[in-house]
Amino acid sequence: MSIVDTAKQTAQGLMQGALEKLVPLAPDSWIPGGVPDPLIARKHGLIGSPVSRLDGRLKVTGAAPFAAEYRFDNMVYAALTYATIARGRIAALETAAAEAAPGVVLVMTYRNAPRMAPPPAFGSSPGGVGPADLPILQDDRIHWNGQPIACVLAETQEQADHAAALIAITYAEEPSTTSLTGAKANGIEQALFMGQKLLNEIGDPEGALAAAPYRVDQVYRTPRHSHNPIEPHAATLAWIGDELVIHDASQMVSQQAQTMADVFGLKAEQVRLTSPYVGGGFGSKGLWDHQVIAAAAAKLSGRPVRIALSREGVYRTVGGRTLTEQRVAIGADADGRFQSLIHTGLAVMTPHNAMPEPFILGSRATYAAPNILLKVEVARMNMLANTFMRAPGEAVGTFALESAIDELATELGIDPVELRIRNEPDKDPISGLPFSSRHIVEAWRQGAARFGWDSRAPAPAMRQEGEWRIGMGCATGTYPYYRMPGAEARITLTRDGDGVRALVEVAAAEMGMGTSTTTAIVAAERLGLPLDWVEVGYGDSAIPGAIMAGGSQQTAAIGAAVIAAQGALVAELLKLAGNDSPLAGLSVDEVGCDAGGLAKLDEPARRESYASILARAQRDSVSATRPGSPPLELMHWSMHSHSALFCEVRVNAVTGETRVSRFLGSFDCGRILNAKTAASQFRGGIIMGLGMALMEETQFDERNGRIMNPSLAEYHVPVHLDVPEIDVIWTDIPDPHTPMGAHGVGEIGITGVAAAVANAIYNATGTRVRDLPITLDRLL
Amino acid sequence: MTPFDYARATDRADALRQGAATNIAFLGGGTNLVDLMRERVASPARVIDVSLLPGAIEDSEGGGLMIGAAVRNTALAEHAAVRARYPMLSRAILAGASAQIRNMATVGGNLLQRTRCTYFYDVEGSRCNKRAPGSGCDARDGFNRIHAVLGASEACVATHPSDMCVALAALDAIVHVEGPGGARTLPFGELHRLPGDAPDRDTVLAPGELITAVELPPLPLAARSTYRKVRDRASYAFALVSVAAAVEMDGDRIADLRIAFGGVAHKPWRATRAEAALRGATASAQAFRDAAAAEFADARPLRDNGFKPALATRTLAAVLSELTTGEAA
Amino acid sequence: MSLIVNGLEVPAPADARVSLLDHLREGMHLTGTKKGCNQGACGACTVLVDGERILSCLALAVQYDGRRITTIEGLADGDALHPLQAAFIEHDGFQCGYCTPGQICSAIGMVAEAKRGVPSHISPDLTAEVRLSREEIQERMSGNLCRCGAHNGIIDAIRGTVAAEVGA
User: What is B5-51's CATH topology?
Assistant: First the structure.
């Protein structure tokens, strides 16, 4: 028997054991006075147990198809040519040599591209997910160094790549801003994020800071980062009649289809976008120029197109996280209680997008202080549109905040864990709302005990083994709970012998987070079905609703939609059951699901299986589609995930090299739905945080705005030898105000990590590094 | 990639015959050349595959080792005699690239690796005198963390990226070359050039010349040798600084030694000044540091690589301390 | 000219520019071998050639005439997964799954190297018998990047199966 089979049997065994208890239907909203999701009370089911990914077999055999692996008959390959100036116009464009090159089918530039509307920029309309509001290949203007300016289609990739290199371009350069100094000189503006000012002020923060007996006031800097999913961005697409079919790598499937429809003047249903497997995204797998260009070229040439960006192409056309300069100032009394918390600074963006890195978000609800100033300002540069990258805002914001707290702990002579606990707020310091679920103190206590925090040297540079100086550091991570509206779920039960199979369809994206497996687990538990009777459909714009793998909210969004659809499905089943059923006369509120059917909650013997209901009604299947309820819970509570992070580093006294030798993440993220995939999400975030702390930087040449390390050889991400065994634990305390009691787990992992590493390095060496990445030269 | 003809050399004579044409490139494992061709840094019209020519590691007449140019990096690193008699060479190879690349890459190809300067690689968007002579150097005032502090010129500040070559420089290897003008040998230190005003030429090889073998002379002191590489992550990264060193002690005096640095110059940098300062000297941390300081006295740091002299000094001191105190080699 | 891919003889491409990777993916529709960087910097394209792991993106297909190439598609025995494939599922040695085929092929090649006695950069004694400690495996697998952060699961999967024989 294979491991997979064993896991399945185990899962089924667990399932059978759990079937003794009926689960009532869940509430469809979470408001004060409401009831929690009944699944929270179910302690012995699949939820929380370690379940292997249901798509694992396809992935380990190489059979899972990714975007660049679909094919159409008569397909051609695309290659792009990129601008080499930051701003200006194309003065001359010589394409004859490319057109004459072997195998070339089309050379498309602004001169012959079809007319297309600019994609609505992210945040500007409900379905708009364009990177910026710039037209794509519609005029001679250059807006960033790396902008695509020509597309070649050829019979083979080799021919297309070669021909693209034969296009000769002459530019008329115009003045540009590509340095931070220049951008600041041009003017700094208050940042707006999703239409809201990134500004909070309470009391007299500067006055309280000046008056505080203990204070820190420092500037922290973080560089540009690139997501670097191992799968480069790609799409395989075709016009079939007046329908555009796109096999894409997308974490926002429906929204991208809608935006493509907007660009080409189509109805939404004329764009079919599928994306069942995505080779990593981290915020980057959205709509960028290449899909639009490929669709235009396919239209112009009448041929299906594969566009698979080169790694350099990804760097030139897919934005990353922008740089920040942050000031954190904290004033505290002698007991360490914060009197003033100031977190302000600058992020850089472009004239054409709306993504100021919102690094103060994590500072809004983490610590209590009577006087608070949080503010993000922006300066603009002529560069590729920056975008969200794993925990946008919090990932870099927590570096500054949590480093400053470590510095304050040193000033005060208070243990940094204790200092954080001492400043726990009893309600949201900004909004005044109660917390929905906050158990960060438990996470700290459990983590500290498990990590052996009490063995940390109280002063820096006290431990050394051979060449290696050893230190420990800690930090808090935080990420909000979100639930975006727009999610729908369709549940279809189909008779299969004496049983039924369930198909749960959600327009969600799966990039490896485990979403499809978790959705199957939750649906199986709600419907009272074994896991392998449940199939999850996702990653397809033909599925109703719009869900996004972003903001760590997809699981909650799906969860609420599945609750709504299940309610409708049960109502339909009760209708179908009719007068001859043991369930006759019962309402939705009176029944629960278990063992493959419905039963009366207070009289479980009164029951009928789904298959029996369908059979009597002479139906093969029953289906219900419903949207999730509006996310009212967000109006009533301050909702966040938390982590307590512990790091041990070894810093080489000779070379300054840092190795992370131990790491523990202690998480408070509501109820964990799948112990196996959630642990992987935590570890994955932590490891990306280690990269951010120690090695990651997108090198942006300030002379001409060109990215100079567009390569996985020169942009360093952690390799196996950089990654220690990472311990993760969680409180597993359900949030009574969310579906399943769960919070998202995709982004919390990276938050706080860079600070935990920096703080450990300080403890090891006595050197405080406030600029990322902490490369060896800063520690010599 | 620009279209090219591919041909396999059937034997060395065939390779040389085919190599006499213009705009050819000899292909070893392809780990550097294929990348350069894809990036259009290199666009040979004809690629002559010499990776299948006989390549063996044999005892040389003088008591050293003769290593065929087509020997794969892994094969050289794992060879029993290399591990035992020239450990710095095994360690240098194993510190380079990844196992997959070492399985492909040949010894000859490793010697001819080109720099990782990112401006050199950026054919479309950057000026580079090495790639396009006379176009300028964008690295000098750009990102130059990995660049040279010794022996650079106004025209070029690139570094040689090989680890293996640093060990070969320290080991006084001999490069066997054959070309249209016949066969010749070169001391390893004379193979690679400093950039001067012709940085497009990495080596002194003439067009059509083929590296046929690398000879390691007998060097008993090499049995006590090591290689230490310092880089931005724990593995699979090019060196910021590396040190290959071998030491023979006579009591507490250094009877003889070999030192070479990687990551600091346009060529593997044989530290002759440091060697001279230490040969016959009493081993001490101060002596090591002074010797390194002498070696880097002429260092010209750039914007981002000012840490290299200090890092090289400290790394050398640590390596020599390890070799002279008898701890782990 | 022909290559032997998973036991099947297939012609080499006519265009010498075609990499072994592209020949597998586009020419033979064997898309299990992944293109991550096409620069020799990520390891996603790792395949086994005569049992040795190499990067197929840096390999010109024509150069591999007559060689036996094993890809991820060639590892399972019918429906029975290779033990390492099964262990990757059990240990959650992946998230997105894109680097996975390369990690698995690389690990198989890595163990063969260890059994043959190839030391690593971090081996304390170059001449000693190779024992694959956790750290040794980490070093030897460092040519395979994973961005999802499945490193722990990958190493666990390898240690528990193919590396067990030469484990430390």
Answer: 3.30.43
